[in-house]
Amino acid sequence: MGNAxxxxxxxxxxVLVVIGACATSGGIQALRNFADVTEFxxxxxxxxxxxxTLATSTPISAHVPVNYELRGCPIDRRQLLEVLSAxxxxxxxxxxxxxxxxxxxxxxxxxxxxxxxxxxLGPVTHAGCGALCPALPARLLRLLRPDDRAEYASxxxxxxxxxxxxxxxRARVSHVQRHRARLHRRxxxx
Amino acid sequence: xxxxxxxxxxxxxxxxxxxxxLRITVHDGQVQRAALQIYEPPRFFEALLRGRxxxxxxxxxxxxxxxxxxxxxxxxxxxxxxxxxxxxxGPLADLRRLLYCGEWISSHALNIYLLHxxxxxxxxxxxxxxxTRTIGTSWNAGWP
Lengths: 190, 144
Prior knowledge:
The complex is a heterodimer of chains A (190) and B (144).
Chain A: H1 3-12, E1 17-19, H2 21-25, H3 37-44, E2 68-70, H4 77-89, H5 101-106, H6 112-116, H7 149-160, H8 167-187
Parallel strand pairs in A: 1-2
Chain B: E1 5-10, E2 20-27, E3 30-38, H1 45-48, H2 57-61, H3 69-84, H4 91-120, H5 126-130, H6 134-142
Antiparallel strand pairs in B: 1-2, 2-3
Helix pairs in contact in B: 3-4
């Protein structure tokens, strides 16, 4: 346990619940992790030398041990109520640990990857929102954080089997692939 | 009047969710120096939006603020419409107005009941103020 983790436990006690995409994944500003922050700074600010910021945006769990993560932007209020009521009665919160595909199936929705060949990052998106976007005529916003690395392989296969015509979809898939490569490097201690 | 210097420090500005600090140096009743420090880090939305499809900015800019996302979402829509020379009128404009008004109500209610009132009325947390009826009676007492 690092110094930050020890300080945290001493200061706030044993159970840490982090809420929202920024706290659980670094948020949308974590896109800087794949870019040059110095360039960003000089692009936006008239006096970039006065702006102090980190080169990366990272989840809280990268720094201190986290007990529960409520993902998404915004979070799902049923999940928050579940955590709070579980704590009130002294039981473990029941949070999903699968991809959003399971919720999509339970809603009885037709899989857009299989049926239409439309790229969807559902396989690498954490469950919890109730499969909001696939039920609407909208693209999957991927508001929850991709997490389980076993799912990355299936997303890769799904991506490979599709004709990805638009740059945006290709960029999303390559983002997932980069993330997977990073997980691999971390596991191998590189 | 005596020769006197005072340093006023608000290390966390509660009115803006603690996202900044204020330091004021007062000398003989005159403000000598006022420094505002914004310690919330920059998020670089302007840079992140480059090279994206015109359909993406509303979803991205909505994440600038969790209290007033519609303001940013609407701004993104209007910016793109400006570029494309599109003018939104009729029922769609009314619907947008309704959405915006909804956010104003929600945002102001949040501001009053969660951010300001507990502080003004001496409650340590918003949940504590929510658990009593005092907050309602205090407001009503001051108003006709």
